[in-house]
Amino acid sequence: IVEWIDAHVPRDRVVAMNAAVEQRTDELNAELDRASADAAAREVRWASVHLGFGETPIEVVGATWEDKMGLLMLTGRRLVFTYGGTPVVDVPLDAITAVQRRGGHLRDRALVIRAEDATFGFREPQPGRRLDVFFDALHEAVSGNEPRVVVEEQPSRLLSFAPYASFIASPLSFLLLYP
Predict the structure, then answer these.
(1) Interatomic CA distance for residues 51 and 44, integer angstroms
(2) 148 secondary structure, DSSP code
(3) What pTM did the predictor assign?
């Protein structure tokens, strides 16, 4: 019978865990499809296999961590980053100590999560406009009734300008020396 199952059932088939999980997964999948985030939409179905029984995804966004493009999923228990359907980063909500949203219209957007023993930077959210919704849901999930998680402000533009000051100073010094 095992040979018959292997021959006739697709390997990527996902078995329903429970109705609430399946319903929310389908909703998130449809939202990502409408936003033209096809890779993230496929990853939602694969990632839902690794959720515990009754663990429902709250929000998802496609993201890049290190060199891996995958899916960042928030559940009621944890924050999970999956790559190819396999969990790569798994942080319980209780372990998160700080969250930060970075970037804007001209700069690349990112989400920085600080845990007790590590810092994770997720960049290039897909679709980009979902990052704000994801951040708000994450903030609400980790805060609950008592605000124990620090919401960090993004670094000022002046601080991020300092590494590039030499590129501007070099042409200016040339003009001062040779008028």
Answers:
(1) 11
(2) -
(3) 0.69
